[in-house]
Amino acid sequence: MAVKWTTDDFDVFTIPGLEQRMEALTEHVRPKFEELAKTYTTYFTSKTGIEFYPHIARHARRKVNPPIDSWVAFAPNKRGYKALPHFEIGLFESHVFIILCAIYEAPTKKAIADNLLNNLETVKALPHSFFVTGDHFDPKGTSLNEAIADGTLEKLLIRLKEVKKGEFLIGLQIPREEAIQLSGEEFEEKTEETLEELMPIYRLMASADLT
């Protein structure tokens, strides 16, 4: 079933209090992540020839502060995703994101950074409407167009390589106003277009696990 986003989904992240926000997240958003999990686990497995598994954020470690975003992640490991390059589809209050991630837990992130720096033109060929960030808690990031123009792209990849907490996330943001106007079928089409664009970058990232 195609996922249709509503204002209620985004408004979850305005609810004060951890318990109340988690209840709303479970009620409004998690069923949609479960639908996305069914659809895109099959998609990634067929595209890569490797079995992928979905991981829906549980926010289980949170004791006080409510989450500012939530997501379903996809990676070729049943037990977890953070140590691997992975895809995420998720929400902040302000937007939907469809992204490819290498976060600080990845033991191969130096090799991932080298692969991307050595193939920078492939990264630069992505749609310039995409965004990049070096922090998975950053709801804004920088447009890829700006990041190419001012050197931020290379700086983020060097930081990924050299700084323990360095991260690299790249993909599409759909503002909530636009997202709630999309039909389920339109969102699915936009998601698959985005993932298709990101797949060559994923292959560069994933090949670092083999070197």
Describe this structure in words.
This protein is an alpha+beta fold. It is built from 8 helices and 7 strands; from the N terminus they run H-H-E-E-E-E-H-H-E-E-H-H-E-H-H. Strand 5 and strand 6 form a beta hairpin. It is globular, with a radius of gyration of 16 Å.
Key features of this structure:
single chain; 211 residues; seven-stranded antiparallel beta sheet; 18% strand; globular
Mean residue pLDDT: 95
Sum up the overall morphology in one term.
globular
Rg from alpha-carbon coordinates: 16 Å
- What share of the residues lie within helices? 40-55%
Instruction: State the secondary-structure class.
Output: alpha+beta
What distance separates the N and C termini? 39 Å
Count of runs of 4 or more consecutive helical residues: 8
Major beta sheet, strand line-up: 1-2-3-4-7-5-6
Largest sheet: 7 strands, antiparallel
Describe, in short, the structure shown.
The protein is α+β, with helices and mostly antiparallel strands and 211 residues long. 45% of the residues lie in helices and 18% in strands.
List the helices and strands and how they pair.
Layout: H1 7-11, H2 18-48, E1 53-56, E2 69-75, E3 86-92, E4 95-102, H3 109-118, H4 120-124, E5 131-133, E6 142-143, H5 144-149, H6 152-162, E7 168-175, H7 176-179, H8 184-207
Antiparallel strand pairs: 1-2, 2-3, 3-4, 4-7, 5-6, 5-7
Helix pairs in contact: 3-6, 3-8
